[in-house]
Amino acid sequence: MRILSFVLVGTLALSLFAVGCGSSGGLNLFSVEQDIELGRQVSQEINNNPSEFPILPEQGNEEVYRYIRNMTTTLLNSGKVAYRNEFAWEVKIIDDDETLNAFATPGGYIYVYTGLIKFLDSEDQLAGVMGHEIAHAAQRHSTQQMTKAYGLQIMLGVITGNTSPGTVEQIALGLASLNFSREHETQADEYSVIYMCGTNYNAAGAAGFFRKMENSSGDRPPQFLSTHPNPGNRVEAIDQKADELGCRGTATNRGEYARIKQLLQ
What are the residue boundaries of the structural domains of the chain, listed by start? Predict the structure, then answer.
């Protein structure tokens, strides 16, 4: 079974026109419009590459898609998500039971694998992961890390259309395994709590992912668990953030989540 980090893309990105700061306060030379255009191109490449990204068909899976998208919309409507109206915030499911992952592109295209959905035990856990991915896109970590990984010339070339054939495909394929900095991972964890705090969900839902991952056995540990803040530390920090914000939601919706998982069998 392949286990990847739920998408981690972010550190130092750039724009053709002006130096600016991302929502996280880090240097980001890409404009928001360029985030949007880059995300559109990468999402198009993902949609056109079913061998690597087998998108679960909408037809016949309407209820599962409605469930995942309603969950995501709840977080987006928290009033805390930057670029709520500017970014696409399009959610798709990748039909791959062997991969525990979710990832986001710049501009708010979010992909979650069936393997992750089936691995988790409750709706608040998945909502916590989705909140983490929303944060990477909304805080514009994505363009920062992609620039660090691929270089300024390549990234600007994608936006302007001046790249070699296959470049966008290469970037799309790398999205699911790009690693964020410790700072960006910590910030995405925090924003996951912030987004969920005003909902009925247990706001520390993302901590459930890390607890379950720590307790799972028989699989190769995911790379990001060794290169980013220790899972136990992340659980503690997420729980502390929920307490600090006075979050009162308790919903886990385990029964409904189990029913949705059955629909994916």
Answer: 2-263
